[in-house]
Amino acid sequence: MTLTIDSIRDCFDGAIPGLIATCSADGVPNVSYVSEVHYMDSEHLALTFQFFSKTRENVLANPFVTVMLLQPHTAAKFRIALRYLRTETEGPLFERMKAKLAGIASHSGMSGVFVLRGADVYRVLSLERVPGRTLPPPPSAINMLSALRACTQGLANAADLDQLIDQTLTSLERHCDVHHSMLLMFDEPGKRLYTVASRGYEVSGVGSEIAMGDGIVGVCARERTPIRLTHTTSDYVYGRAIRESAAQAGFADRLETEIPFPGLAAPGSQLAVPLTLGSRLLGVLFAESPEEMRFGYDDEDLLAALAAQLSMAIHILQSSPDVHEERAAPLPRRAPAGGPAIPIRYYPADHSIFIGENYLIKGVAGAIFWKLVRDYEREGRTEFSNRELRLDPSIRLPDIADNLEARLILLTRRLAERSSDLGIEKTGRGRFRLRVAGAVKPVEIAGNVR
Amino acid sequence: MSQSSQPAPVLDAGHVAFMTSGVSINVAARDAHNIPTLTRALGCRVSADRCTVTIFVAVPDAARLLDNLRINGAIAVVFSQPSTHHTIQLKGADARVVAREPDDPALFENFIVALAADLAHYGWMDSYVRTMLSHDDENIVGVAFTPYAAFNQTPGPAAGAPLASTGTP
């Protein structure tokens, strides 16, 4: 079998630093370590440009270099002849390598020393295996192709977005040995991602938000590219940093509406892949593990292929028209008031909702909930359709990326977690019911201060 | 060659101690078109006057490197201690293949033991290091050269600077 770059991708996972030999224009060879050799495709590799070194000087003067890499597990050695093409200082490749380098730096005690200045792109000229003994490769725990097949079959059986999302995370757990995962949807006008489902955490974190460019999920979303971390690094950690930056920005009084991101406290490996349709971002599929080096190139391919299927399935569901009901729903009756009315506060400034003292949700999902509660209070209505929400001017759904279904899932899940008196139940395609245990007392509060 | 034409050694005793302590050694050469190649070495010896460094490489792995050295003698050797990242690089222009000495196999074994011990800091198994450095003693050749320049290559702000004295004469 011919040796190809694709067949030795585990050499590019950054577990073991590579070596690069260069030569100056006047014939003086140079040899140096290279922290990260990144697989781009079967004909291109990218190397980190970190220092203005002799290597750098030589590469610019003479583009022919040789790299030597060691294979994890087998100890096989490979020599690769390369020709330098260009340096990228921003964009998807740069961000992928920057994230990986941050993990490598953290792992090797080089945080603050290893800084990516650029991603040097090379064409592969030849690849040879260095003669020598090797160890047998470990058996792979998962057959990635059969796992992908099982996952996509699961998606095909989902009847709506709610099932689709749950099926995706369930499939990752069942078929791919991924036990900590999240799905975040993109709020395009708000330039944020919000969590609609998670697996493997003490709290679901549904409703938690991540700004574009923030951490591994935010960078993945901004660049529309998978980002993979093979080692823990503080550079991409969530949690306190978000809270601190919010506090510094003078929004300390609004912190009660922050839902904590549910991620692992000490992740060993993380992988985020974008859900896209062409250039349009739908969301991010995120997986993590306490184990270092858990996700390799094959895992990334698996999640990327699954994300592509998921994106297409979401698109098909969003494109199918709502059922045009003939408004035959029976006139609902006001539920009998048992105990005291449930106090519901609504802050129109950011559409945030509090049930009693409990923060529920804000944004579009908050506006939806407020409409439902007001209709219930005024007319006793409990039956609603997606279509009327789309048409309701008070909700102002962003019409470019109409994520009504995703907002309803978010709202339904938050209600299930935060209130035993109120809930949303699906009653059919494009229809649902507001479940209310008693009377409600909605109060709208103008202004910003809570 | 007269004694007076011998250049002053670029290495002091501290550098020599580091180079021969069982650190990772890799060697580069280049062909007539300035295309570089590289090979892992299996140990190092330094002459008493510190003017001649001999590193050991295995054929057939090093065949192309040796071909290049025979033609032009240009060599670069990097010595690096994985646990500390301490790294130095030597340059030579007169590299040539030299005869082995009787006690060389012991030097190779000591080298592997020391490097394996250092790599154990990263959790590398002894079996992995031994496989990586596997060789047939009979196929190892020495390459000697006179270092004319030496550089600090430890990652950080001082990387690339000429090698500073270790304070050990």
Blueprint (SSEs and pairs):
The complex is a heterodimer of chains A (450) and B (169).
Chain A: E1 18-23, E2 29-34, E3 37-41, E4 44-49, H1 54-61, E5 64-70, E6 77-88, H2 92-107, E7 118-130, H3 144-156, H4 161-176, E8 180-187, E9 192-199, E10 209-211, H5 215-223, E11 227-229, H6 240-248, E12 269-277, E13 280-289, H7 297-319, E14 342-347, E15 352-355, E16 358-361, H8 363-379, E17 383-385, H9 386-391, H10 404-418, E18 422-428, E19 431-436, E20 440-444
Parallel strand pairs in A: 14-20
Antiparallel strand pairs in A: 1-2, 1-5, 3-4, 4-7, 5-6, 6-7, 8-9, 8-13, 9-10, 11-12, 12-13, 14-15, 15-16, 17-19, 18-19
Chain B: H1 13-19, E1 24-30, E2 36-40, E3 44-46, E4 53-58, H2 63-72, E5 75-80, E6 87-92, E7 96-98, H3 104-119, H4 126-132, E8 140-145, E9 147-152
Antiparallel strand pairs in B: 1-2, 1-5, 3-4, 4-8, 5-6, 6-9, 7-8
Describe this structure in words.
The complex is a heterodimer of chains A (450) and B (169). In chain A, strand 18 and strand 19 (431-436) form a beta hairpin. Chain A has 450 residues and is of the alpha+beta class. Chain A is elongated. Chain A is 29% helix and 29% strand. Chain A folds into three domains: 5-130, Pnp Oxidase, Chain A (Roll); 144-319, Beta-Lactamase (2-Layer Sandwich); 342-444, Orthogonal Bundle (Arc Repressor Mutant, subunit A), CATH 1.10.10. A seven-stranded antiparallel beta sheet of chain A has the order 2-1-5-6-7-4-3. In chain A, strands 10-9-8-13-12-11 form a six-stranded antiparallel beta sheet, with helices on both faces. Chain A has helices at 54-61, 92-107, 144-156, 161-176, 215-223, 240-248, 297-319, 363-379, 386-391, 404-418, and strands spanning 18-23, 29-34, 37-41, 44-49, 64-70, 77-88, 118-130, 180-187, 192-199, 209-211, 227-229, 269-277, 280-289, 342-347, 352-355, 358-361, 383-385, 422-428, 431-436, 440-444. Mean pLDDT of chain A is 87; it is low at 240-246 and 250-255. With 169 residues, chain B is an alpha+beta fold. Chain B has one domain: Electron Transport, Fmn-binding Protein, Chain A (Pnp Oxidase, Chain A). Chain B has helices at 13-19, 63-72, 104-119, 126-132; strands at 24-30, 36-40, 44-46, 53-58, 75-80, 87-92, 96-98, 140-145, 147-152. Chain B has a five-stranded antiparallel beta sheet with strand order 2-1-5-6-9, covered by helices on one side. In chain B, strands 3-4-8-7 form a four-stranded antiparallel beta sheet. Chain B is globular and about 40 Å long. Chains A and B meet through strand 1, strand 2, strand 5 and strand 6 of A and strand 1, strand 2, strand 5, strand 6 and helix 4 of B.
